[in-house]
Design goal:
The chain is built from 3 helices and 3 strands. The chain is an alpha+beta fold and 76 residues long. The protein has a domain of 36 residues. A 3-stranded mixed sheet has the order 1-2-3. The longest helix is centred in the first third of the chain and has 9 residues. The protein is elongated.
Length: 76
């Protein structure tokens, strides 16, 4: 299906349903197609607190002060 930006503004819900059902929806500005409306195929994964537990290790050196040369490199 091809529609104009103006028509898409008034029929967005219907166009979303068409895209979700598998129909290709192209929105054009005049005669020039500018976007394609497509459904998301998967939901973004949510961040889970503690998901890295047991995967990362910080040795004793992590808690030692940085050498002066390395500290200066971070301050640039």
């Amino acid at each position: 299906m091809r529609t104009t930006v103006h028509a898409a503004k008034t029929q967005l819900s219907r166009l979303i349903e068409k895209a979700r059902s598998g129909e290709e929806v192209v929105i054009a500005r005049g005669d020039t197609p500018v976007v394609r409306l497509v459904p998301l195929t998967e939901r973004p994964r949510l961040r889970r607190f503690g998901s890295m537990k047991g995967r990362a290790r910080a040795g004793d050196a992590f808690f030692e002060p940085m050498p002066a040369e390395e500290l200066r490199a971070w301050e640039k």
